[in-house]
Hints:
Layout: E1 3-5, H1 8-19, H2 30-43, H3 45-56, H4 69-78, H5 81-99, E2 106-110, E3 114-122, E4 125-129, H6 138-151, E5 155-159, H7 169-178, E6 182-184, H8 188-197, E7 207-209, H9 214-223, E8 228-229, E9 237-242, H10 248-259, E10 266-271, H11 274-287, H12 294-304, E11 305-309, H13 313-323, E12 327-331, H14 335-340, E13 347-350, H15 356-361, E14 387-395, H16 397-413, H17 417-424
Parallel strand pairs: 1-11, 4-5, 4-7, 5-6, 7-8, 9-10, 9-12, 10-11, 12-13
Antiparallel strand pairs: 2-3, 3-14
Helix pairs in contact: 2-3, 2-8, 2-9, 3-8, 4-7, 5-6, 5-7, 6-7, 8-9, 10-11, 16-17
Amino acid sequence: MRIIQLTEETRKDLLSTLLKRSPNQYTAYEDTVAEIVEHVRARKDEALFAYTQQFDHIALTKDTVRVTREEMDAAYREVDPKLIDVIRKALVNIRAYHEKQKRYSWFDSEENGILLGQKISPLSRVGVYVPGGKAVYPSSVLMNVLPAKVAGVKQIIMTTPCRDGKVSPNTLVAAREAGVDMIFKVGGAQAIAAMAHGTESIPKVDKIVGPGNIFVALAKKAVYGFVGIDSIAGPSEITVLADETANARYVAADLLSQAEHDELASAILVTTSEKLARDVSREINEFLKTLSRADIISKSLDQYGYILLVDSLAEGIETVDQIAPEHLEIVTSNPFDTMTRVHNAGAMFLGQYSSEPLGDYFAGPNHILPTNGTARFFSPLGVDDFVKKSSVIYYSEEALRNVHEDIEAFARAEELTAHANSVAVRFEGA
């Protein structure tokens, strides 16, 4: 893994390289995705099934597109009971974490006849996209569904590609445990279009969440406005900020845990220690001799893997904030203090034993995180993504009488005389 002494020039080059991984850079696919979305919007099931046949080589009908109760029951017979137990343990942790995010309606009543407030309402129907191509992620089912359940969403539907007409049993078990209401055997841009616009088989949703490949990401971008979306997710990424106290073997293992996702994944070590840099690079080479996805990891590291040497921890923190990574591990002598000085990261993992996969599977915080530098302004998926807020205003006659001239003056200043009249008419002749 390449070791680079960080300078202002290398920092600019690094950020430019990482941004090339953003879905916003793949404009060559946008016309194709737009065509798929429009065809599904116009022709509904007919187009949905045709694209599923074309891309996934699966012949579906209205009678076979939805996962049946029998298929769900069969999944439980196929999945290792120990994995089911782990899913249930993780589910408890994830639900408990998100319960703490719940918001509640509030109302302030004043003695002068004024009541102001905010009403919190859950979304009515949410669509969850679950990948099923290169890999299967039952953990993502839990992370997408449980915040919605905690928020009080009335109906959750899920779409996921199938292989040979069958959805992964692990995915089905996770979906039932989490409380999904309906599951459909479709994936890709056509699945996003179906949830956004509705078909004869798949109901239209209010919001679509969940990661996917470039076609899924661009389809979510295309349907935004017809429905809400969580974000346009890019490839996975990890940055480790470490000093001389870090364990090189642990750091190397954690970097590789994200590099194995796909060839576009990014793994970066930012360190003040030249010795740690060399040791981590050596450990990575040793791990690559035994890991099952070594080919994918090697391509990822060749393109987007870096060990960056910085002169001080302060410079390292500045670099991390500019990268704004999806996952940030802080392995310094005082990670809690370091954490307080970092502003931009999707999720922070503190200390030697808070390995990134802990967050992926089990601890409780959500692993659907902002990527490609969007942690500067986006947050992890959470309960807030599944509710909407309505402001509430009540003024009595007397309360409005006390301020109506101020409101009318403001409206006239904007040359909106109908606005002014709407208030004034209530006090004609007064």
